[in-house]
Amino acid sequence: MRINYYINYDTTIRKYLENFKLGKSNIYKIMNGNLYLNDELIKKDVNIYKGDIISINYDEEIDYIPEEGKLDIIYEDDYFLVINKQPGIIIHDTHNSLCNIVANYYKKKNINLSIKYASRLDTDTSGVIIFCKDLLTLCYMNDLVLNHNLNRYYLALCEGKFSKKEDVIELPIGSDRHNNNRYVVARNGKYAKTSYKVVKEYKDYTLVELKLTTGRTHQIRVHMSHIGHPLLGDIKYGAKSKGRVMLHSYKEEFINPYNLKLCSFSCKDSF
User: Fold this and answer.
1) Which backbone phi and psi does 239 adopt, to 5 degrees?
2) Which residues contact 36 (CB under 8 A, 6 or more apart)?
3) Segments of the chain assigned E as strands
4) Model confidence over 240-264: pLDDT tens digits?
5) List 45, 122, 143, 269, catalytic entry
């Protein structure tokens, strides 16, 4: 499948591809018979200018079994598919996952590309999740995540009332040696930073807005539990009652590599 890229600044082809953080092997594959400049096949680095069109042929296929399901699409173009994920659905699995539903959507739209997601959400977590259609976009988004340049905002319902209405939590997170698939604040863990502010107080719980600077597994759940305010329903991290873990990814922001402008995707919570 061929995807077009519209050049908005003067550079060279190699530098353009490097700006998306592609490795040398991927650049070699693209420039070895899969790259077109203004509809002409090229196999070497040349200058390109604003207004040019680079086209890349991707020899890919849909790599998940297509399955029927509802998609709440927030935004779509040639590079991004942004979805409001519903609670209770896993991102990827052999069957009954969001990737299976996206595969079915691609099949109906004749999009012959593999399924690529830029970040993950837990099964119970709802909200914004970004799928990348092509390799350039995926590499770019992976680099944003790795270097903490993808701004992610969440809403959560937490137990109790907060003494501090706004705070920043910088506590390292590591695996819980005693419980599989559980994480804890650990001195030897990885650096993690969560900012929060109280939005609304209820009788026994509080609506909180959170911003992730880092993206450690279960980061919000671990940090909120550690300060004595586990998410409602999150018995794994100390909640009093079992139910859906009340966490919603309501907004993601980043610099769009194709127009160099701030890009923001958001959706209402599902509480």
Assistant:
1) -65, 150
2) 2, 42, 54, 55, 56, 57
3) 2-6, 11-12, 35-37, 40-41, 47-48, 53-57, 73-76, 80-85, 126-132, 151-159, 166-170, 173-175, 183-185, 193-201, 205-212, 247-255, 262-266
4) 999 999 999 999 999 999 999 999 9
5) 122
pLDDT tier, 181 (very low <50, low <70, confident <90, very high otherwise): confident
Does the pTM exceed 0.85?
Answer: yes
What are 254's two structure tokens?
Answer: 């980043």
In the chain the domains, ranked by start, together with CATH numbers, are 2-57 (no CATH), 73-147 (3.30.2350.10), 152-249 (3.30.2350.10)
* Closest to 192 in 3D by CA, of 167, 166, 218: 218
Q: In the structure encoding, which two tokens stand for residue 47, read together?
A: 């200058």
C-alpha span between 62 and 111 (Å, rounded): 8
Active-site residue flag, 39 = no
What confidence tens digit (pLDDT) does each residue in 193-210 have?
A: 999 999 999 999 999 999
Residue 53 DSSP class: E
Residues in the chain: 271
Closest CA relative to residue 213, chosen from 230, 231, 190? 190
The answer to whether the CB of 152 falls within 8 A of the CB of 212 is yes
